[in-house]
Write a structure and sequence with these properties.
233 residues; mainly alpha; ATP12-like; 11 helices; globular
């Protein structure tokens, strides 16, 4: 049986490298990922890791802390995993929810038009693509060239940025809304409103369900953590 060890180090510190990235040390031992890779981080993210590893508790619990779990995952990303994430994000772009505007009820239709319209215009200009927009639930075919353009843009990101964008896209359900946050085109609060416009409309009509509201709060807290990561890398 493997015994889950308690924290054994006294001090946690960051140490700057020549490339403006920071290594993390537990006493004099360099922190490494699960795959044995050095954890090299921007300063703000390094500060979060120092904070998490300065807490008392079992090592497994510390490793499951939000920022540590993210940093380990991004550090250990293989080329095969990176390619998988790139293709997943392209898939999101090929069926992004901002391309689907409800035809009715009219109040929801107008709300989605108001929220989605500026995002659609910005994405088309920023990525130099054309988005096909529909009002039904059936899949809307996008121009084939879009996928190549989106993937080319995403390939420029390092593993930390790509992992953060992937997780934030999953949280929002929308690649384009995620990119808009990254480029400071929309605020996190507005992005969350865009992602939840249908749920919010349903609540307006039918009222709140306690269990759903609890889950929504948990999801929103997770989303805010992901935004913090994107702001720190």
């Amino acid at each position: 049986m493997i015994i889950d060890r308690e924290r054994y180090w006294k001090n946690v510190r960051k140490e700057k490298q020549n490339n403006d990235l920071f290594l993390i040390y537990l006493d004099e031992v360099r922190l490494k990922s699960d795959q044995g890779n050095d954890i090299k981080l921007p300063e703000q993210l390094a500060d979060e890791i120092v904070r998490e590893w300065s807490k008392d508790g079992k090592i497994s619990t510390i490793k499951n802390s939000f920022f540590t779990k993210f940093c380990f995952s991004a550090t250990d990303t293989t080329e095969q995993q990176r390619e998988f994430v790139l293709n997943r994000l392209v898939d999101y772009g090929n069926c992004d929810p901002i391309c689907y505007i409800a035809s009715e009820p009219i109040k929801l239709h107008l709300k989605q038009e108001k929220l989605y319209g500026p995002l659609i215009d910005w994405v088309e200009k920023f990525l130099s693509i054309k988005l096909n927009i529909g009002t039904g639930l059936l899949f809307i075919e996008q121009p084939p060239i879009n996928a190549d353009i989106i993937k080319k843009y995403l390939k420029e990101f390092d593993n930390f940025h790509l992992t953060a964008i992937h997780e934030l896209t999953k949280s929002l359900g929308s690649l384009f809304t995620c990119i808009a946050i990254y480029k400071n085109v929309v605020s996190p609060d507005l992005a969350w409103e865009v992602a939840n416009v249908e749920d919010n409309f349903r609540i307006e009509v039918w009222g709140e369900v306690e269990e759903e509201m609890w889950k929504k709060k948990v999801d929103f807290d997770h989303f805010k953590y992901l935004v913090r990561i994107l702001q720190k890398i």
